[in-house]
Amino acid sequence: MRKLIVISGIPIDDLNVAETLDRLEEFVEIGRATGKNHQIATVNADFIVKAMTDPELRFLLQESDLLMPDGMPLVWGSRLLGLPMEERVAGSDIVPMLAERAAQKGYSLYLLGAAPGIAQQAADTLREKFPTLVIAGVNSPPYSSVLEMNAQVVQDIRQARPDILLVAFGNPKQEKWIGMYRHQVNVPVMIGVGATLDFIAGHVSRAPQWMQKNGLEWLFRLAQEPRRLWRRYVLDLFSFGYFFVRQWWVMRSGKQPELILPKSSFMIVDQETAVIDLQGPITIQNHEDLYRTGQEALAEVSSLVINLESVTFLDSTAVGSLVALTKDARSKQGEVLLANVPENIKRTLDVLKLASFFVLVPSVEAAFATLREERGTGVGTTAVAPTLPSPAAKPAPEASPAQWTIVKVARRLDANTANSLIEQCEAHLRRNPFLIMDFAATVFLASAGLAALVKIQRLAEEQNGKVRLANCSEDVNRVIQMVRFDKVLALYKDVAAATGQLESV
């Protein structure tokens, strides 16, 4: 079973080094057999702090297939929560071990990123150490944003067809790049490796073993590059401590009695959905029962409704089990809905920045209504005003359109849904160049989604039309503002405001 420990909203896999290598090998074999790709990240305190203020990074980490605890503060934090991780799993340690296993198994590697020449040096070093290792390609593209990166990079990786892609753009760029292009390059295993290629190439020295074992590697690196790293290792460490203390405080409790789940505690309501009723506290002692029950249900259906009405407490492993079940359901094109969530658990999810990761509904009945609506409408469902302008009578750029076409955006606008939204919007724009995109249901906007919005706006401009965004959540607004797209896209508080007369925005 997959054991996740949630620290400041990020579900980290509790695996040792050997188990991590086995899991990565399993991902490669699955990818080779089925075409499925897997996003992997090495998480440290810096990641956690950035994720608290960067909604896109937070969702990408929450949705990742494997998160390694690459930092002793995470291990220490898990111990303070009473949920000790087995050990630190550093990316700089795992990558050479993974290369060795790849050489043994016949897997190929592609090295992407780092400064000019570094990736090639790292490749040469790995081939010297493991002569049978296959390096499918090496590329250190010029610096650019994720949205501006040369499309040839993606094409080169597709042609090389590696089994493992190591991306060294630094956090969060590497995670956002993988999230945006993972389905285009379609590599079985894609890992954000940060400075690991610099270590392998000998460009940056690692701390002595005694410092690594005692959690002092950060101090060694800070001494090497104080100007560049002081913020990461000093300010971010204080920020991580603040967020962690908040989590510890909200989750503190005395010893909780063990919850014993019935042998079969789910009920299949229809061909696609099962209901699980829980009660009492769910902790490290019994969270495996919850996960096992959910897995049994997901073997027969694609969606779960989990009734938390009688649940009194969730610790980090219990939250991790809910995250894992949600990921499992989404991999089957299903969903997990949490019904009747008590206020104390809502506060926990809010503190962990997980309230928008899950689908929270007020009742089991509301959960089924939500599922029926999603299954009936799908991505990009449109609510169109009764009368549309004729294609032959195209309005002038500053004219008031007779009607607007309203497009409901998916819950997650990312690489999985972006192309579908573009296609649907393009079809509507051919009939009516005035489009309102309703983000009321959207909780996650990725870089691929931003690129889709820009393309849709350009398509509207070609038709002398306009695109307006309405009902954007705080997280969606933050993602738009972080890349300054609020200067380009017209944002409105709701659909009613967006349907007003055209004006200069």
Give a summary of the structure in a few sentences.
With about 500 residues, this protein is α/β, with parallel strands linked by helices.
What are the defining features of this structure?
single chain; 505 residues; alpha/beta; Transcription Regulator spoIIAA; 3 domains; 6-stranded parallel sheet; 5-stranded mixed sheet; 20 strands; 46% helix
Description:
- The protein is α/β, with parallel strands linked by helices and 505 residues long.
- The chain folds into three domains: 9-248, no CATH class; 266-376, Transcription Regulator spoIIAA; 382-498, STAS domain (Transcription Regulator spoIIAA, 2-Layer Sandwich).
- The chain has helices at residues 17-34, 45-53, 55-63, 72-80, 91-105, 118-129, 151-160, 173-185, 196-201, 209-213, 217-224, 226-251, 287-298, 316-331, 343-351, 364-377, 418-431, 447-462, 474-482, 495-498; strands at 4-7, 10-13, 38-43, 66-69, 108-113, 134-139, 164-168, 189-192, 266-268, 273-282, 303-314, 336-339, 359-361, 382-384, 405-408, 412-413, 434-438, 444-445, 466-470, 490-492.
- Strands 4-3-8-7-5-6 form a six-stranded parallel sheet, with helices on both faces. Strands 9-10-11-12-13 form a five-stranded mixed sheet, sandwiched between helices. A five-stranded mixed sheet has the order 14-15-17-19-20.
- Helix 2 (45-53) crosses helix 12.
- The protein is globular, with a radius of gyration of 24 Å.
- The model is unreliable at 378-401 (pLDDT under 50).
